[in-house]
Structures are given as structure tokens and as C-alpha cells.
Amino acid sequence: MSFATTYFRILSSERLKMGKSPVWLLILLSPLIALLIGLLSTPSGQWNVLMGTMVFLHGLLLLPILTGVFTSFVCRFEHAGGGWKQMLVLPLTRTGVYAGKLTIVILLLAGTQLLLLGSILLAGTIQGMTDPIPWGFLTGKLLLGLFACLPLAALQMFVSLVWSSFAAPLALNFALTVPNILIVNSATYGPYYPWAQPMILMTPIEGGGFGAYNVPLGTMLAVVGGSAILFILIGVLYFRKKEI
User: Fold this and answer.
1) For residue range 60-69, what is the model confidence (pLDDT) as tens digits?
2) CA-to-CA distance for 195 and 231, rounded, in angstroms?
3) In the structure, how many helices (H) and strands (E) does the chain have?
4) What is the pLDDT of residues 16-61, one digit of tens each?
5) CA dihedral 82, 107, 231, 76 (to 10 degrees)
6) Under 8 Å CB-to-CB from 73, ≥6 apart: which residues?
């Protein structure tokens, strides 16, 4: 079976699994919390201030944690009850299986970012913002946040493939997310820490920033893109050679 056929079959099967599980409802969690924070904030009519307030907790903790939850979930059924054996005895390409599962994770994260955009617009409307909506600025920052999730999703996918436990990758992800509070203050380590990259790229700080926020955008994009390719290659190579 070709890569494309395997890929689309995996997307279809994962969609069916999502439909029978409440895990997709988690995409609502962070945008709803951000909406509450936005309604309680005082942005003084400035969209960038409102966005900065609303993405703080989202980028610092919730988005990295959700990335780990989604990657663990798409591997959970296959680890349970010999699911990998049942799947891989079929004429499927392992690269197609890996790509399909990673795509589902990215789509769930994209849904989270889209709902966060809705939360920002709703909070701005309720706050009585009169300035024109800076569509390019808002969508650009949220897309950068989604892009920054790629290396973390690939890394968490690798961990979820290695460990058959559902809880272990989640615990590791949580333990490595908490240090974000300190690591984003470091221009030396912050840009290279996958759990901190979504926060760094989404936060609207223009000049006069601190720590990792002073790293040029081009450098951040190169680091995130390069590490995403590296982690995806490691994950694919491991999965192709994995003994089931």
C-alpha cells in the first residue's frame, strides 16, 4: 500500500477514534481559560496588550501540556491490547502511519489556536475595543505558536512510541513544561527548549524584551524548523525499525 493511501486511511481511522472519545473537547479548555483572563484584564484599548495577556498561560503551560496529551492519545489505542500488531500486519507503510498520527495532533493544536483567536476577538468585543482588528498581527502570532509546536509534537510522539504507558509521557511532558517559567528568561537556553518555543514566538513583545524574547525572529524560525525536521526524522526512523 502506498504512503498516500496509508496516510489517508490513518487520518480516517483517527477521526473515527476521536469521534468516540471526549479528548477532542480539550481543544476548548485553554481558549476558555484565556477568554476568562481576557475579560478580567485591562488592555486599555490595545489589541497587542490583550493578546499578550491572553496567550501568557496558554503558551507557557497549557499549549505544551495539550501537545503531550494529544500525542499520547493517538498512540494509546495501539499500545493497548496489541493494537500495533493488529495495525502493522496490514499492508501499511510505517512512514504513512507516523505522518497520519502526527497530522492529527497538528490539526487538534490548530483547532486550539483557532478557538483562541475567537476568544481574543470575543474578549476584545466585550472589552469595547474600538481600534481596527489587527488580523495580520493576531493570526501571524497564533500561526507562529502553532509552528513552534511542531518540534515538541514530534518529540512527544517519539516518547509516546517508545513508552507503552499512557501516563509516563504525560508526566514527563508536564515535568519539562513547568521550568518554562524560568527558561523563557534565558536568551541562551530558551530558544532551544521545545517547551518554551510556543510561548516565545506567540508573545507580542516588540523591542525592549528580555531573555529569549530578544532573540531575532529569523533565528527562532531556523531553530524551530531545524529541530522539527530532526525530531520527525528520529521518530520516523525509530518507528520504521521498531519491533512490534
Assistant:
1) 999 999 999 9
2) 14
3) 11, 0
4) 888 778 888 889 999 999 999 999 998 888 999 999 999 999 999 9
5) -20
6) 21, 23, 166
**Which residue has cell 490539526?**
107
d(C-alpha 140, C-alpha 134), whole Å: 10
How far apart are alpha carbons 15 and 4 in whole angstroms? 17
**41's torsion region: left (phi>0), alpha (psi -120 to 50) or beta?**
beta
| Crossing angle of helices 167-177 and 135-162, rounded to 10° | 130
Q: How many CB atoms lie within 10 A of CB 172?
A: 15
The enclosing H or E element of 182 equals helix 180-183
Contact 131, 45 (CB under 8 A): yes
The C-alpha atoms of residue 109 and residue 115 are separated, in whole angstroms, by 10
* C-alpha cell belonging to residue 140: 501571524
Kindly report the pTM of this predicted structure. Answer: 0.90
